[in-house]
Structure formats: C-alpha cells, structure tokens
Amino acid sequence: MIAETVCSAVSAAGLGIAAVTAYRRRFLAAVRVAAYALVPLGLVLTGAVKWLSGLAVSPTAWVGFALLGVSWLLFMIIRTVERRRAGTPREERGAAGAAPRGGAVAPAASKPAVGGASRAVARPGSGSSRGEDDFSDIEAILKKHGI
C-alpha cells in the first residue's frame, strides 16, 4: 500500500515538473520528463509492485501496460526528434542563434574577420601599389604573431 502511494506521488510530481518545463517552452525535455514520470504509475497499475497478483484479468493491469506503452512511445518519438535535430549541421544552428546578436566579436579578437574583405574594396584607386599593400598586411599579421 505504501509503495503504491509513493509511486503515485512520484508520478504526480514528475508530471507537474513536465508541465512546468513545457510552460517554459522546453517541449522535448517536458515530454522526456513526462515519459519518466509515467513509468512508476505504469508499474503500480500493472501490478509489478504486488508481483503479478491477478495480472491476466485485471483491468488496471492492462491500463498500466497501456501507460507503459505510451511512455515507450514518447521515448521513441523524442529519440527520433533528437536524431533529426542532431543531423543538422552545427554551423546552421550556430548561425541561426547568432544572427539576432549582430556582429559579435570574441573578447580576445582585435578585429572582426569579416571586415578584412571590405577594407580591400575601400581603396580602389591605389593602382600598382595595391598588390604591395596586400602583402604588407600579411607581413604585419605575421609580425604580430611572431612569425
């Protein structure tokens, strides 16, 4: 009797945590928590706590098996979704997350790497010394790094 009460309380608490997690818009984590929360309730309803007493004809046992099946199905759905999400390249995920921030530069960086191409376009009238300027930029970078 106490084991069934404890398992039911654990399941109720887990479903409450899943609801709060879903409220915070973390739906994959919420479904995972709900799947884990249904396991103790499913085990209680299947009669695993009482060890198969009246298992074959008990309607609550079949409801428990149904809950275990739902829990397993939720696990499989989450696994499929996570595999598809993991299949997308990290650059695309990183670019999607970094796009709203704008031109963020690492704290140790002296100049953004994107600005190098626009600098060469900004000096179109230098003529034959343009090739020398490109090499002087490279030499300055190599000297800066001690090479």
Question: What string, H for helix and E for strand, traces the elements in order?
Answer: HHHHHH
The percent of residues in helical segments reads over 70%
Give the mean pLDDT: 76
Q: Which residues sit in consecutive blocks of at least 5 with pLDDT less than 50?
A: none
**Class of secondary structure makeup:** mainly alpha
Spatial gap, N to C terminus? 76 Å
> What's the overall geometry?
rod-shaped
How many runs of DSSP E, i.e. beta strands?
0
Radius of gyration: 30 Å
Q: What's the helix count?
A: 6
Taking the sheet with the most strands, its summary is: none
Strand fraction: under 5%
What oligomeric state do these chains adopt? Answer: single chain
Please give a quick description of this structure:
Helix content is 71%, strand content 0%. The chain has six helices and no strands.
Could you explain the architecture of this structure?
The structure is a single chain. By secondary structure, this protein is mainly α. 71% of the residues lie in helices and 0% in strands. The chain has 6 helices and no strands. The chain has helices at 2-23, 27-46, 59-87, 90-98, 115-122, 129-144. Helix 1 (2-23) packs antiparallel against helix 2 (27-46) and helix 2 (27-46) packs antiparallel against helix 3 (59-87). The radius of gyration is 30 Å and the shape is rod-shaped. The N and C termini lie far apart (76 Å).
